Amino acid sequence: IQQLFNLFKELSTDKKREVGKELNVLSKYAEEVYRSTKIELEEMATSSSDLDLTLPGIQDFIGSEHSVRQTIKQMIEIFKKMGFSVAEGPEVEDEYHNFDALNFPPNHPARDMQDTFFIENKFDTVVLRTHTSPVQIRMMENVKPPIRAIMPGRVYRNETLDSTHLAEFHQIEGLYIDKNVTMAELKATMMHFARVMYGEDIEFRFRASFFPFTEPSAELDIRTKYSNKWMEIVGCGMVHPNVLKAGGIDPEEYSGYAFGFGVERITMAKTQLDDIRKLYENDVRVLSQF
Ligand code: PHE
Q1: What pLDDT digit, counting tens, does each position of 213-248 carry?
Q2: Is the dihedral of CA 63, 68, 71, 72 positive or negative?
Q3: Closest ligand 1 atom to the C-alpha of 174?
Q4: Which residues pair with 257 in a beta bridge?
Q5: What is the pTM of this model?
Q6: What residue ranges in the chain does DSSP mark as E strands?
Q7: Which of 43, 114, 175, 185 is deepest in the core (most CB within 10 A)?
Q8: Residue 247 C-alpha to ligand 1 middle, in angstroms?
């Protein structure tokens, strides 16, 4: 406005009269706006002196579900849609449910100190369960067939830690018992699960295997189109007649299949993590990516 007044001096007398009025209106208006804004700002400054709108904001870190928990939930959803219910059992088990009832011979090497955490107990031998399979026995003891359940939970092994082994991890067991259950149903169930989890276009490889509690037994490997490596995802098989008997079920009348997933392995395959220990180092920079 000051500059306009300077230019004003150079105008002719006629023009001065015309423009002068307008200039006065403008400068009055500007003064008024300046005055009222100043008062307004001064009032704001005294009434809320602790509010500084120029400071940078404080970022809140919002927690999220651990990727292992996400996998468990996702797997439960997939199996629920196939009609499986969810059951749980104790992490501190007796040797009977963890081994004997599952048809482990008394001298089976898997029982020895290498793999199992034994707990001292005067009355009988108590262990930290080495797998979720004892929940199968507890289920059979308590529920009449048909049984169709999955059993997620924490398991323990006396392992040396490395990039693929932990001493404490999670499994999801599955058990289906009814009349005339066949291996074809087991195969189809495992393949359906893997396709939902990893995509329609994965390749499968069923390998013959051994578990004391299933006969025949198999392991399933899958391969995605992004990788040329086969990856083992589950151990499974037809429930051994001795196991059905131990659970109080007549093997002449009923048959069934069982399977056991390692949740951390499934998570690693999903997240492309290359070291199982990263799941439990609780580094937010790693975990928040999933
Ligand atoms: N319990 C077996 C393991 O820990 C997995 C499994 C479960 C295999 C059920 C077959 C049937 O390795």
Answers
A1: 999 999 999 988 777 788 889 999 999 999 999 999
A2: negative
A3: 9
A4: 176, 238
A5: 0.78
A6: 85-86, 92-94, 118-119, 126-128, 147-156, 168-178, 203-211, 214-223, 231-239, 255-262
A7: 175
A8: 17
